[in-house]
Specification:
The structure is a single chain. With 149 residues, the protein is mainly α. The protein has one domain (2-112). The chain is built from 5 helices and no strands. Helix 1 runs antiparallel to helix 4 (86-112) and helix 2 (30-55) packs antiparallel against helix 3.
């Protein structure tokens, strides 16, 4: 249920953001923006938020989401529209998506992704003691008597 909530937050926020950038600024239709948002939201949630973010940090995941958003918006936008300025639109949209993803990753890290290290009861740090003498020294009476002579 937590993943559905996070995916809904991501989809609605991305739809509003991409409609402002692509729809208003670059005159793309709402249906095209909706399709781009749907594909980008699902792919970036699976790859960026569930695969890359738990294994790396927020900065790496945000950079990966920027590249993924740029490529997906450019490829999908180029195939469904007839505009000649799709690279600029894809770059502006990717910058906006990356800024949103930076804060969304903080939400994911704090609320959705459960770190197994935090749930650990004990640290299981075992320690072994070692001494300088591995075997006890047994005095040899024969040699001790010779020292006295």
């Amino acid at each position: 249920m937590k993943h559905i909530k996070a995916l809904a937050i991501k989809f609605i926020s991305s739809l509003v953001l991409l409609y402002i950038i692509l729809g208003v600024a670059f005159d793309m239709s709402f249906g095209n923006v909706f399709l781009i948002t749907l594909i980008l939201g699902i792919v970036s949630y699976l790859i960026g938020d569930l695969f890359i973010l738990p294994k790396t940090n927020n900065t790496i995941a945000t950079i990966a989401d920027f590249g993924l958003a740029f490529l997906l918006i450019w490829l999908i936008g180029d195939s469904i529209t007839y505009g000649d300025d799709i690279v600029t639109a894809a770059f502006a949209s990717a910058v906006g998506v990356a800024l949103f993803e930076y804060f969304f990753h903080k939400y994911m890290d704090n609320q959705i992704l459960i770190k197994e290290d935090d749930n650990r009861i004990s640290t299981l740090r075992y320690q072994t003691e070692a001494s300088e003498e591995l075997t006890p020294r047994i005095p040899n009476r024969k040699y001790e008597d010779e020292d006295e002579l």
